[in-house]
Fold:
Amino acid sequence: MLISAFSAYIHGILIEKFREKGYSKLFLVSGLVVSLGILIVFKYMDFIIKNINYISNSNITLLRLVLPIGISFYTFQGLSYIVDVYKKDAKVCRSFVDFATYVCLFPQLIAGPIVRYTTIEDELKNRTHSFDKFAYGVNRFVVGLAKKVILANNLGMIVDIMTKSNEKSVLSYWMVAIFFSLQIYYDFSGYSDMAIGLGRMFGFDFLENFNYPFISKSIKEFWRRWHISLSSFFRDYVYIPLGGNRVSRVRWIFNLLIVWSLTGLWHGDSWNFILWGLYFALLLIIENLFLQNILNKLPALIQHIYAKFFIIISFVIFNNENIKDLWSSLYNMFNFRGLDLYNDFSTYYLKSYTVLLIVSVIGATPILKNIIQKINKNVTGQKVISTINPILNIVLLVVVTAYLIDGSFNPFLYFRF
Structure:
């Protein structure tokens, strides 16, 4: 992490210093090579070697390097800084302490959101601290922690039970798909809430990373709401430099395939992640070419069903690193003749976790947020909310603490990316 940070810091200075002499592009390329080289060696080298061994029938020894924690996130932060300095979108940072603080900032270091230097450039030197900011940060942190411990962990528990069971049915496969989709949402958005909350406590205003993605009516809208910092990173630093959509149709399709292959690969060194990225590329190509015009004419409910269906299928691809297991899961979700539609095992667990499912579905929509905003519109409502909110935070913290004491270790899913 320190080597990556120092490299980005030095390259930023060199890009600025030699801009007038025409060498800035050389140092831009050099900075990208160093940062991406570190990422490739630690995260993807064994994946590359495995594929070389498979294709050439060779036996090259795997490196088996331990993945440095947070490498994907701090690498992308360094990359965005170098590119922004080159494009004059960011001022060069002269203080290594300030720049290292930006890279190593612990609230969002391990699993994002990906924070750009321009977002917190001024706050590295001049932050505003206030009781309101700290109170908001505490509230946001507690909500994020509750998302992870109360919802994500319990959703993960049912996913684990249903996956390991030998009493499979069509319902059980769909339960795994739906519960995992909700699990990864609450796991990752919960971490983002905690990061944003911690940042606010220290005077940093991180940008939002999720905006109720499951209410989307199209795949394009989904990626405007899901992992916003990652999708905007690939848009600004890969898609647009490749030409974006201001090119021929063939080149535009090529650009999308490149961007989404990289988006999938960013998540891990496995072919299922690449397939996951290409799956979204295909859906976005179809939507942009003709499907979006058809969807716009359909009722909103149909649009929601369409988006939910393909989003759930995407997380089946995401969840199965073994291609054989992936095919089995997708096939059996629609294997209405070869499998029982449901059995006692699947119905028992569905009934047992119905409340969790309902709470998770409601929590993934802005319903509660809208209700609170309506209540807040009058003075009485504001007093009620201001009274209930701290009590609710304390209750949530007590419940979360009880879960943590009683439960086992459940790391965030995105820690491994």
Remarks:
- Residues 131-164 form the longest helix (34 residues).
- Residues 2-104 form one domain.
- The mean pLDDT is 92.
